[in-house]
């Protein structure tokens, strides 16, 4: 009985290897395998697959580096100080009222322009 099991296993193994040995032989010049044969293989799973292939995963493209706009520093131009000259402001004196402008609102004889004088 051991001999029959051994012979069966040997025949199955030889049939399985002969088909694969000739499959890639090709008989030269790229014509491929021709001829029939019987092969035995092991299938794990239901024996059928999906009728479609799942889509490839979508990867986001690498992001671009941020745009950096370097602005020039503002240029400040300092204005020169005004030249010291004669004073441009005057006091206005009313001779009829014998007083100066903000204290007297109207002067019937006309106003007289007077250079400002410090108090004292």
Question: How does this model look, in words?
Answer:
This protein is of the alpha+beta class and 120 residues long. The protein has one helix and three strands, in the order αβββ. The chain has a domain of 34 residues. It has a three-stranded antiparallel beta sheet, with no helix packed on it. The longest helix has 22 residues. The model has no long low-confidence stretch (mean pLDDT 76).
Task: Name its key features.
single chain, 120 residues, alpha+beta, three-stranded antiparallel beta sheet, rod-shaped, Proline-rich region, signal
What is this entry, summarized?
The chain is α+β, with helices and mostly antiparallel strands and 120 residues long. 18% of the residues lie in helices and 8% in strands.
Which helices and strands occur, and which strands form pairs?
Blueprint: H1 2-23, E1 91-94, E2 99-100, E3 111-114
Antiparallel strand pairs: 1-2, 1-3
Give the biggest beta sheet: 3 strands, antiparallel
Q: What oligomeric state best describes the polypeptide chains here?
A: single chain
Number of strands: 3
Strand order of the largest sheet: 2-1-3
Decide which structural class fits the backbone. Answer: alpha+beta
Give helix % range. 10-25%
Mean pLDDT: 76
Distance between the termini: 147 Å
Low-confidence stretches: none
Rg value: 57 Å
Q: Give the overall shape.
A: rod-shaped
Q: Count the DSSP helices.
A: 1
Beta-strand content estimate: 5-15%
> Could you spell the SSE succession in H and E letters?
HEEE
């Amino acid at each position: 009985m051991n001999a029959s099991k051994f012979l069966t296993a040997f025949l199955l193994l030889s049939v399985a290897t002969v088909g694969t040995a000739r499959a890639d032989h090709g008989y030269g010049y790229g014509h491929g395998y021709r001829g029939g044969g019987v092969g035995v293989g092991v299938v794990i799973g239901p024996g059928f697959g999906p009728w479609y292939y799942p889509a490839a995963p979508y990867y986001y493209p690498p992001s671009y580096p941020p745009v950096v706009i370097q602005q020039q520093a503002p240029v400040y131009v300092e204005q020169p100080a005004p030249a010291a000259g004669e004073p441009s402001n005057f006091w206005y004196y009313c001779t009829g009222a014998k007083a100066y402008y903000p204290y007297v609102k109207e002067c019937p004889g006309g106003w007289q322009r007077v250079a400002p004088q410090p108090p004292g």
